[in-house]
Every structure is written in structure tokens, then in C-alpha cells.
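In full, the data:

***
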Amino acid sequence: MTESGQATQVSPGETVPAGAGFGARLRAAMDSLGPLCVGIDPHPSLLASWGLSDDVKGLEAFSRTVGEALAGRVAAIKPQSAFFERFGSRGIAVLESVIRQLRGSGSLVILDVKRGDIGSTAAAYADAYLDPASPLCADAVTVSPYLGFGALRPFVGKARENGLGAFVLALTSNPEGAAVQRAVAADGRTVAQTIIDEISQVNAGVSPMGDVGVVVGATVGPTGHRLIDLNGPILAPGLGAQGGKAEDLRAVFGNALDLVLPSWSREVLSAGPDQAALRAAAERARDSCASAIAVTA
């Protein structure tokens, strides 16, 4: 958190007012650095392709290299918590270090944990990831709404209290998700649309963009869902190695393209461990996404 009266540095030459929320900071980062989020996914196959051991030492080297190559050069960086958690407390210690080093670099940190629970347990998760006193505190966190959107209130409240954000799963790329997400309620809306509409109410009137966003896979195709009223960021994973292409963004997001933060992970990461190659791969991904988004902007 910044001291009162100071500006929050987002990227070289770009500032937002002190105390600005996540949405405002992300909007400034996207406008300055381009629309791209890159994951830190230390998958065993990537560690092997980089010539690293599948242990905490390899995890640390992988994460450090990605951070040094891309921090301050892309709008957001998204560590996947599971690949750190699999090494237990030592892996979590590496994740804490990654978050600490990335925050304030100019790239916002979106921690991909997909948490979701009820009552005091949800509040404890919110404290873990959205309280500045926690070593795991990120700029935003991914959450699952399938215990009911109301169960996410601790995350939403903690995020807004601290100028942070949350991305709520809405329409994911995995084929199993459709049975739940596209199920139709009594009022004719899909489950996903009810989630989107709930978030639209949370973000209503916030400028330039609300702090609560959604996750919509870049490979879901035209969905018929209304996103234009969301007034919050749309995290769009699935590009690159997962089959999505930048030009797919136009078909999926239509008139909500300006809200989209495309996410690339393994295709960019596979360019490592050379830092210059990682940066070049990220720049290619960013430019292709910016071109696709600008077509109908």
C-alpha cells in the first residue's frame, strides 16, 4: 500500500492516484504495457525442457528467470499456485518470494488458486491472499463461485478494502465445465450469466474499471453471453499451447474486447530459459493480442 498523497507506480511513465483499486491499476498497466498476462507455470515438463531439476531448486530457478525476464514488461504475471504447493512448505516459500519480488515491478500479480468456500473458511482464504499483512498477498486472486456467488463476499470485500482484485470463474475452457456453467436457471439465464450479472452489480459506477472480473476461456467460442455490462476485467486463458489463437478473441468477446486480458503461459515459457527469448516470445504474444483486440475497438 502506498502512503497517502503518493502515486502508485504502474509502469515507466504511467501512474495512477494513490489508493487506486485493482481495476484502475490494471487498466493503466494494460494501456501502457499492452494486453497480456503471462503465467508462471513450473510444470515438470517445462522444468525438464529448461534443463532444471524437478525439485525446489529447479522451481526457484525457473521462477526467478521468468520474473527477471518479464517483470515490468507485461501487464500481469500469473503464478499457478498448484505447481508451488506440490513441493510443500518449501514450495510455498518460493511462491511467497516470487510474489514479493514481482509486486511493485510494474506487472500486477494475479495468483491463480481458484479458491472457493463458505463462511469463516472463505474469510480465511481471503486473508491469506488479499490482506497486505500476508506473505501470499497478490494484486488479485482467482476464485470459484460454485458454492454460490454470495459465498464469495469475503473475497470481494477484502479485495475492495485493500485496493485488490478477484477473478471469478465464469466460462472455462475445460469441456466438463459446460454442464454446470451453461445450465439454465428458471429465469432463462445460464449459471455463468447470473455470475456475470452479479459482478456487473458489484462493479457498477466504478471508473475506469471495477476490481472484480471474470475468467472466460479464449477457446470457448461464441457463447451468446452478455459481457459488455461487466465493467471489470476479463481474464482469458487458453491461448497458445492450449489451442487458442489471438484472432479467436474477437469471436468470443465481441463488444467487450476492451476489457480482455489475454493469458499465455506454456507457449511463452517454452522459449526459456534464455531471458531474451522469453521477452521476445512475450512481445509476439502481446502484439498479436493487441492487433486482434484493436480490430473492432
Notes: The chain has two domains: 32-110+265-287, 116-262. The longest strand covers residues 108-115. DSSP finds twelve helices and ten strands in the chain.
